[in-house]
Design goal:
heterodimer; A: 258 residues; alpha+beta; 3-methyladenine DNA Glycosylase II, Chain A, domain 3; Alpha-Beta Plaits; two-stranded antiparallel sheet; B: 194 residues; mainly alpha; 73% helix
């Protein structure tokens, strides 16, 4: 029987190899955190990195060790944050965040510095004397943010990007695309927002743009809670104090607060 | 001990003239699949080289002391079994002791299980009747050759991304044409080192 010996040889090799592997996996086992595994199951597994960690595994490890909040996952959104907060027994704010562009600039309200006829990209235009607008902090309006948005939530009309709140999922892709760093993620229900990012002195700002913060401090004076402060020639809101009374909006002569 | 000349000849042949990917057309799958970035191509090649050398070190004695001369036809199945086990073992080992390398190699490590270049080199060692030391160097050379072609091709693909390619050639077609041209240029090495 010629068949028996080869069968035995292959089976014995298989057996030795299998035994070796199972022994190895026992002795060299890496203890995995059960909590981490459960957290991983809650995450979408897209490994997009918008949480700031290397991927879903990295984020799960960070949550498990308490280094990260469970509400950082943008693609998972509210559903994931809720699942995680149930799992961990902690309260997280599950308010969805949306992109906010801190500039009201548009060709008809912002003074032009020069006529730009290069590549139609904000990043490229920004390399030429910080863009064709007089305001070097403001929106260039070629829509790098719109181009990068995977959900089509940003549209540029008349040289001005507008965020569609229904479409925006808060993935923060646009945040990195803006060469002027004008975009940030803000909770949708925030009552007051400063729609200007210019940190130059008042007179220069007034010349550059019709809708701009000239650091007149009217909002600061009218705020009863002391939530709004002008720093670096720009009004800034402390959201822990703001109660959304809206007095600053009335006081602002330049329509910067929305 | 093989002489220095024969080892040099083996290394030269493995890297240039008998290049695994570009002359023998083995391991084409990772060559096309993992060569999008130079970094990943390099990591993958290191893993492949490692597995090739270890696999040769294990399969050579198995063949020569266990299978030869009566059961040589078991070569393929036994080698596949052993290589798969070695890859698994390396994975477990790296996960425990060299975590950063394990994470860097990621999915590429288990992919090597089915890499025909690894099976190819172990079988070529037997076919060419190399000694134990020679077959180790042959595996090392094949791994380095694999690395050379992977990294070269990753660089070429990077250039291809920026190139203005006709619509009907975009993607895999132009990649395959580029691969063919690289293989053609490698045929110019034939004859070096005997």
């Amino acid at each position: 029987m010629d068949i028996i010996l080869p069968v035995i040889i292959v089976s014995v090799i298989g057996l030795i190899v299998g035994l070796g592997l199972s022994l190895a996996s026992k002795f060299m086992a890496v203890p995995t955190d059960e909590k981490e595994e459960k957290i991983k199951e809650c995450l979408p597994g897209a490994n997009c990195g918008s949480c700031g960690f290397s991927g879903c595994d990295g984020y799960a490890a960070a949550i498990a060790s308490g280094d990260a909040q469970p509400d950082l996952c943008a693609p998972g959104g509210t559903a994931t944050a809720q699942k995680l907060s149930e799992l961990l027994g902690v309260q997280v704010s599950t308010e969805p965040k949306k992109a906010f562009i801190a500039c009201a600039g548009a060709p008809e309200i912002t003074t032009a510095k020069y006529a730009y006829s290069g590549m139609m990209s904000c990043k490229a235009a920004n390399l030429v004397h910080l863009g064709p607008m007089e305001c070097e902090y403001g929106c260039i309006g070629f829509g790098d943010c719109a181009a990068v948005c995977p959900f089509g939530a940003i549209t540029v009309t008349n040289g001005r990007p507008i965020v569609c709140m229904d479409k925006c999922v808060g993935c923060s892709k646009c945040v990195g695309a803006c060469p002027k760093s004008l975009i940030s993620l803000k909770a949708e229900n925030i009552p007051t927002l400063i729609k200007c990012s210019n940190k130059s002195k008042g007179a220069a700002v007034a010349k550059a743009c019709k809708v701009s913060c000239i650091a007149c401090k009217m909002c600061e004076k009218v705020c009863e809670k002391g939530a709004i402060k002008v720093e670096d020639n720009l009004a800034q809101i402390d959201y822990s104090l703001c109660d959304g009374c809206g007095k600053c909006k009335e006081a602002c002569k330049r329509n910067v607060i929305v | 001990m093989p002489s220095l000349t024969s080892i040099t000849a083996i290394l030269l042949a493995g890297i240039l003239t008998n290049n695994m990917v570009l002359s023998k057309f083995l391991g084409i799958c990772p060559f096309l699949g993992v060569s999008k970035k130079v970094n990943t191509a390099f990591s993958m090649s290191i893993a492949v080289t490692l597995v090739m050398v270890i696999a040769s070190a294990v399969t050579w004695p198995i063949y020569n002391y266990l299978l030869y001369p009566n059961f040589t036809y078991l070569e393929t199945i036994v080698f596949i079994l052993v290589i798969a086990a070695i890859v698994q073992l390396i994975e477990i080992f790296l996960k425990k002791y060299i975590k950063p390398l394990y994470e860097a190699l990621g999915i590429y490590l288990p992919l090597i299980t089915t890499n025909c270049a690894v099976l190819g080199i172990t079988m070529l060692n037997i076919q060419n009747e190399l000694t134990y030391i020679e077959s180790l160097f042959n595996a090392l050379a094949a791994g380095l050759g694999f690395m050379l072609s992977m990294v070269l091709f990753a660089g070429i693909r990077k250039k291809l991304e920026a190139a203005d390619v006709p619509e009907f050639l975009k993607g895999l077609p132009i990649t395959l044409i580029a691969a063919a041209l690289v293989a053609l240029s490698f045929s110019g090495f034939s004859g070096i080192g005997g």
